Recover the amino acids of this structure.
């Protein structure tokens, strides 16, 4: 089930985000705080919320849009984490990675909006 895939990945993103946070605390270098935030919000929080929605509305998992939403959401979470991490690591030339991933993230959310509105539509 799609909800299971989202929840499994969400906890992996959470572990990675926490590991980055612990690394920053131990090293006393907090320059990657934006990377940490993107990883936790797009990776952990968003994926968990998607999982809860798809679990509550199992009929919403059918069709191509939810699958496309799944892959684009994960692609954008990974891409933004990498892009933002590189930028804050001193490689401003990685901005196109972050920009493309941001556009992918908003497109994925727009697809999710379509899925939500379809799944929660009431009969007139």
């Amino acid at each position: 089930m799609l909800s299971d895939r989202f929840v499994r990945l969400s906890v992996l993103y959470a572990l990675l985000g926490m590991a980055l946070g612990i690394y920053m605390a131990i090293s006393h270098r907090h320059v990657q705080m934006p990377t940490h935030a993107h990883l936790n919000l797009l990776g952990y929080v968003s994926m968990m919320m998607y999982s809860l929605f798809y679990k509550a509305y199992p009929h919403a998992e059918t069709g191509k849009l939810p699958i496309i939403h799944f892959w684009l959401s994960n692609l954008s979470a990974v891409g933004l984490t990498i892009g933002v991490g590189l930028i804050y690591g001193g490689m401003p030339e990685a901005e196109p990675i972050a920009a493309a991933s941001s556009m992918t993230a908003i497109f994925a959310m727009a697809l999710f909006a379509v899925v939500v509105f379809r799944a929660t539509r009431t009969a007139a």
About this structure: The radius of gyration is 16 Å. Helices lie at 2-27, 33-56, 64-88, 95-119. The chain has one domain: 2-119. Residues 2-119 form one domain.
